[in-house]
Amino acid sequence: MSDALVLLTVLAATAAGLWAWRRWHYPSFWLALGFPIVAVAVRVSWRRIALGCGLTKKRQRWWFTTVPGLVASTGIVKVRRRFQRVAVDTKPFMRLPMPTRHGWRVTLHTLEGQTPGDYTDAAERLSHSWGVHAIRVSSPRPGRVVLMATMRDPLVKVDDLPPSPELLRVTVGRLETGKPWTIDFRTVPHWLNAGATQSGKSNLANALIVGLAPQPVALVGFDLKGGVEFTPYTPRLSALATCRAESVTLLCDLVGLMIDRMGLCRQAAARNIWQLPPALRPVPVVVLVDELAELYLMADKSEKDEIAKTSTALLRVAQLGRAFGIYLFCCGQRIGSDLGPGVTALRAQCSGRICHRVNDPETATMTLGDLDPAALASARAIPAETPGVAIVASQDGQWYRARSFYVSEQAAEHAAHTHAHLTPSWDDITTHLFEHANA
Ligand SMILES: Nc1ncnc2c1ncn2[C@@H]1O[C@H](COP(=O)(O)OP(=O)(O)OP(=O)(O)O)[C@@H](O)[C@H]1O
Ligand SMILES: [Mg+2]
Questions:
Q1: What's the pLDDT at 58?
Q2: Cα separation of 422 and 167, whole Å?
Q3: Whole-angstrom Cα distance, residue 349 to residue 429?
Q4: Which of 17, 99, 217, 365 is 20 to 30 Å from the Cα of 382, by its Cα?
């Protein structure tokens, strides 16, 4: 065999080995090989990229420069070198890049007059220059910014829904950082879930149903699409309203339940149901609303009273529900003030916000509030090809890009049937509260 052929065989075998390593164990491939190469490239290219992205500053420096000088006696032009003060482009100091699960992060020392906002504005240019999927900017302390690069979109494919070990806590997907995306009703009691049609709102509700079905909780549905979404889950639902009239009755029942629980807590000198002894503690209720706007839309004046009742009852549940174990998860395409003042008040009570792909900037602003403008831009940039991707904002003021696990209607239906025996009846929930207390 000729030398060239041996060389070619070795190269092909190495390439195949690297490909297989990358495919079958990406984390070790990334740490051992990918990241060191990328880290060197990032450091080497930093001056050029900082200059191109407008992140450098002109500073006066003493510089050794060449100046042409005329030797008068002979008329010959000679080049001389001497120290001179010149303006040079200075780049922000970059520390060593560190590997992360999906890319790398690096800390920069900002230059005088710069703010983290300057780096946020340049984030898209930086990601294109380095050829990475996205750069997120944060500032752990004044004078420092951290650039977090993700090499590829980690949300293109996310794994399956894992079981939820804790009460009222469901891992519904994955955050862009690689961490689990968890909805915890004990920490954030009420949620708004907005998005255009086919953006993944109902899929997320399915994920919640699958996660909550095995837990000792009551699930209540409001499906204003005439019940087409939630009716298959009735075995695990303690109550379901499918039209406005049913919604008014069910919401009034919920308010009544809340008042009963208030009385029970007062009697036991407890501030909320979690302070009650376990034997007395009533079952937590998670209320799922699909197509929230339908609760507020008025076809003619005769519906005005009904809408006023619905809106007030829902708002009362949102205001007082947390302490008495009643939690809300409201889905809708638009959750704006154009639906009436009740919606604005309800929105203010829902501290958990999820914004799927939206068609207009107003819906993103309505859902996410006046969060970082980058979050709003990110919500509008969600492509239609990745349903389930959303911007998630929570109480900590942070926002994350996340994707829900895919949960088919069949999977949710199966969970509802499997755990049907855990469904408390609505009568049991509403009427036997004081009987237990007095027993
Ligand atoms: N996380 C996900 N991964 C993969 N596919 C998803 C995901 N979420 C939703 N989908 C798919 O996207 C489609 C639309 O999802 P879904 O029905 O949840 O949208 P929606 O926002 O409720 O729409 P509508 O407003 O019309 O009810 C479905 O076919 C669903 O299978
Ligand atoms: Mg839907």
A1: 86
A2: 14
A3: 25
A4: 99
Token digits of residue 171: 């891992």
Say if residue 246's pLDDT is above 70: yes
Q: How many residues does the chain have?
A: 439
What SS3 class is residue 249?
helix
160 Cβ inside 6 Å of ligand 1: no
Of residues 25 and 395, more confidently modeled:
25
What is the spatial distance between Cα 53 and Cα 121, in angstroms, rounded to a whole number?
9
Q: Quote the pLDDT of residue 363.
A: 83
Q: Closest Cα to atom 14, ligand 1: which residue?
A: 198
User: What is the Cα–Cα distance from 406 to 207, expressed in whole angstroms?
Assistant: 8
The DSSP code sequence of 403-415 is EEPP--HHHHHHH
User: 155, 158, 203: which to mutate for ligand 1, most atoms within 8 A of CB?
Assistant: 203
Measured distance CA(106)–CA(145) in Å, rounded: 8
Query: Which contiguous run of DSSP H or E holds residue 258?
Result: helix 244-267
What are the domain boundaries of the chain? Answer: 169-438
Would the pLDDT of 78 be above 80?
A: no
Provide the 10 A C-beta neighbour count for residue 2: 7
Return the bridge partners of 355, or none.
194, 391
pLDDT 10s digits, 276-300: 998 889 999 999 999 898 888 877 7
Ligand 1 centroid to Cα of residue 198, in Å, is 5
**Ligand 2 centroid, distance to 122 Cα (angstroms):** 36
Is the C-beta atom of 203 inside 6 A of ligand 1? yes
Element containing residue 366 per DSSP (H, E): helix 361-368
Is 104 a residue whose pLDDT tops 80? Answer: yes
Check if 332 has its Cβ closer than 6 Å to any atom of ligand 1.
no
153: buried, middle or exposed (CB in 10 Å: 19+, 13-18, 0-12)?
Answer: middle
Helical residues (DSSP H) of 93-141, grouped into ranges: 116-121, 123-130
**Exposed/middle/buried for residue 144 (C-beta within 10 Å: 0-12, 13-18, 19+):** middle
Cβ of 195 closer than 6 Å to ligand 1, yes or no, is yes
Domain 169-438 coded CATH 3.40.50.1820? no
Helix (H) and strand (E) counts in the chain: 14, 17
